[in-house]
Amino acid sequence: MKLIDHAKVLKQMKSRKASNIFFKLLFMAATTFGLLVLGILLYRVITQGIGYLDFQFLQNLPSRKPEQAGVKTALIGTIWLMGVVAPVTLLLGVGTAIYLEEYARKNRFTRFIQVNISNLAGVPSIVFGLLGLTVFVRALALGTSILAAGFTMSLLVLPIIIVASQEAIKAVPKELREASFGMGATKWQTILNVVLPAAIPGILTGGILALSRAIGETAPLVVLGLPLFLAFLPKSVFDMFTVLPMQIYNWTGRPQEEFQGVAAAGIIVLLTMLIIMNSIAVYIRNKFQKRY
Amino acid sequence: MALQKSSNTFSIQEMIREKKNKKAKKLQIEKIVPFLLLLTAIVSVLTTIGIVFTLIAETFTFFTKVSITEFLTAQKWYPFSETNGAFGILPLISGTLKVSIIAAIVAIPIGLASAIFLSEYATDRTRRTIKPILEVLAGIPTIVYGFFALTFVTPILREVIPSLEIFNALSPGIVIGIMITPMIASLSEDAMSSVPNSMREGALALGATKFEVAIKVVLPAAISGIIASIVLAISRAIGETMIVAVAGGSTPNLNWDVTGSIQTMTAYIVQVSQGDAGYGTTIYYSIYAVGFTLFLFTLIMNLLAQFISRRFREEY
Amino acid sequence: MNATIVKPTIEAVMNHNNSKQSAKAIVYKTSGLNLWYGENHALKEINLDIHENEVTAIIGPSGCGKSTYIKTLNRMIELVPSVKTSGTIEYRGRNIFNKSYSVEELRTRVGMVFQKPNPFPKSIYENVTYGPKIHGIKDKRILDQIVEESLKGAAIWDEVKDRLNENAFGLSGGQQQRLCIARCLAVEPDVILMDEPTSALDPISTLKVEELVQELKKDFSIIIVTHNMQQAARISDKTAFFLNGEVIEFTNTDKIFSTPLDKRTEDYITGRFG
């Protein structure tokens, strides 16, 4: 009795192998598509914007005339924003991560905080804008200041740095903690002197990613009512300001063709900042990888 | 004890004991620190409470001016008209859904195909090169994508479809699809990579091709993670703002036409925020009602994703 | 540091005299100790006296509770959630489970060396000064001397004296373990607990650590957990044999290895199980 017709199996084998190769190529093409889009996007932006990008562009204030427009106020505004977001998120994010990983008991309250954080990460950024508008701009009367925008952005990117810091703290080997406790160190001494130094690369990487998300966001700031056009520089965190994405948004919406070039030049500046920050993150990650 | 132990002229233990007068201070720190850390952890809870409370309170005010029935069932959204204003959310939802569905149609096949390629076919080196590039793609600010949609994708599409308006649903839909593709690819790849090799080997040893293994073994085993990634990505598409604000237009329409100008929930909030709708006007409160609707949509999607990945988690 | 003459304190003289007598002072007195991990009864009615300036070895098959016991002596076991204990362990006459007894204080007096070398990812110098620093000693001159004395005490000074500021991870496994011993010596403990300190080391490094234990015995009381019976025989004065959470036999090392009283001890040391 022969249940399997080997000749038939062999015949089918050919088509099965062919479809394997066909789909492999198809999957490969799909993956390449993503890379291709990235390439086209960068190519377009650079060819459009490079003509407007010069030293003057970084130094000029925004203007009604495309050839005189510059990003100075927006660039400085973005740096101010980073100045608020970085310390606030680092403090709140690392604090939360330490609490959850080192102190919190494994109970329902802790699980609730954890679930809450992952849900916050999924809330659309524009909703954070509504929160900021109500709480910081109006209730705390901060107006459309750097502080109001900074707090709003901090809350938006908080989940990123919390999760990254938790991962980093979790990765610190138990043996190091034991060694420290074994010397008679208290819990806080152990965290401060052993756990945090060992977790710092992961925390910094997460912090930089969070910060780059914060300086690339536009929607919440539009909702807060940040000006699209501002011709003076802020002097303190209570001043009005604008940032690069807002400025780019403003230029993109202009009907004149030239302003699209100016917008592209603004995008180059923004992407350059992001690339620098990400390179730092990658450098930190590689430098400190697998130390234990 | 201590002195005979070494040539030290002092006893470390004694010094430690002397320092113990600082012990009270040390104990206080040990008690205060967890409390301070708890406070920082509570900020994230307060944020959620703040969001929910803000949205509910302002939406409630909105409903004192506009009835819930009108909001939910009226077919028109004309907030700026003094005389015959209408506040029916359906046109905004339709705009959001149009864009999200187009995005899903673009992103699901490409994202899944990339995930299968990376997890099943690619060498380790290829994977290690491509995954970071996909992450870069995911990290590009959305305003850049918006610019790309308006100045590149729309003109090309208009060559192909002459009836396409400058502002339309198609172009931002496609670009949002491109934006969420890395998310599907990356999360699905994680799910597929965690399928144990023994399952693949079992099928391969029977003479199955890699394609058959991917489709018949790996994909079913990782299906919960894959679906969760898709749901999360669509939730991102629903909440996406700048791409539709730049390239989608500001004409709320309740229909299934993708070539004409639309307005999504997010784009409406942007439109009002940029305008000069004064504090306390009906229009001002309407952005909270729209924001609340948007929040509910994404919350349900996120909870669904969490439920799927928890409920159907495979135990290998 | 000034070259000053060592002035023994009264306490030191007493200790010194004590160590000459045959009946040495008791460091640790364990009475009726029981320990549970949740439902699992891991230590049963342990009674053990550990004497000063001796090496006490604890042997037994894996899972017998020997590691659990040694970690109970400095209450490190409390890092495991759901651990419950009953009975008492007196360290120098005080019950360590007493509420008023601070674990930090206990662990300052009782040092521990772990299975796997676990130096901090810091410089060699910082590793040794970690203990003194957290206990508030900041004087650089004193710290310098502590580092030198401790590293000498752990027989690693000559190997590392020229690279004190290099990362401790650059050391070999055996050197790392001796650094961990030095780190432990830096707070001048009274007792040193060693939890299978050589199980991750090569034979030559093992030999060095064993020689070091012999040397340290003069100044410290040492309790060492080992899965290696030859090691116990080579370095310890007394040996306790643990089985299924119970002490089966506890006596002088030469006695336990030559004429064990219990059949189970004999089976274990002759390699019939474990």
Explain what this protein looks like in three dimensions:
- The complex is a heterotrimer of chains A (292), B (316) and C (274).
- Chain A contains eleven helices and no strands.
- Chain A is flat.
- In chain A, helix 5 (125-139) crosses helix 6 and helix 6 packs across helix 8.
- The longest helix of chain A is centred in the first third of the chain and has 44 residues, at 6-49.
- Chain A has helices at residues 6-49, 55-59, 72-103, 108-120, 125-139, 146-170, 174-182, 187-216, 219-224, 244-252, 257-288.
- The model of chain A has no long low-confidence stretch (mean pLDDT 89).
- Chain B is 73% helix and 1% strand.
- Chain B is mostly helical and 316 residues long.
- Chain C has one domain (25-91, 103-269): Rossmann fold (3-Layer(aba) Sandwich).
- Chain C is of the alpha/beta class and 274 residues long.
- The chains are: A mainly alpha (292), B mainly alpha (316), C alpha/beta (274).
- The B-C interface holds B 1-13, 15-16, 19-20, 22 and C 1-2, 4, 6-9, 11-12, 15-16, 105, 108-109, 132, 135-137, 142, 145-146, 149, 153, 186-188, 190, 219-220.
Quick description:
The complex is a heterotrimer of chains A (292), B (316) and C (274). With 292 residues, chain A is mainly alpha-helical.
Write the layout of secondary structure elements.
The complex is a heterotrimer of chains A (292), B (316) and C (274).
Chain A: H1 6-49, H2 55-59, H3 72-103, H4 108-120, H5 125-139, H6 146-170, H7 174-182, H8 187-216, H9 219-224, H10 244-252, H11 257-288
Helix pairs in contact in A: 1-11, 3-6, 3-8, 3-10, 5-6, 6-8, 7-8, 8-11, 10-11
Chain B: H1 12-19, H2 23-65, H3 68-73, E1 77-78, E2 86-87, H4 90-121, H5 124-139, H6 142-160, H7 170-193, H8 197-205, H9 210-221, H10 223-239, H11 242-247, H12 265-274, H13 282-311
Antiparallel strand pairs in B: 1-2
Helix pairs in contact in B: 2-13, 4-7, 4-10, 5-7, 6-7, 7-10, 8-9, 10-13, 12-13
Chain C: H1 10-20, E1 26-37, E2 40-51, E3 55-59, H2 66-73, E4 83-91, E5 94-95, H3 103-109, E6 110-113, H4 124-134, H5 140-153, H6 157-160, H7 173-185, E7 191-195, H8 203-216, E8 221-225, H9 229-235, E9 238-243, E10 246-252, H10 253-258, H11 263-269
Parallel strand pairs in C: 3-8, 3-9, 6-7, 7-8
Antiparallel strand pairs in C: 1-2, 1-4, 4-5, 9-10
Helix pairs in contact in C: 4-5, 4-7, 5-7, 7-8
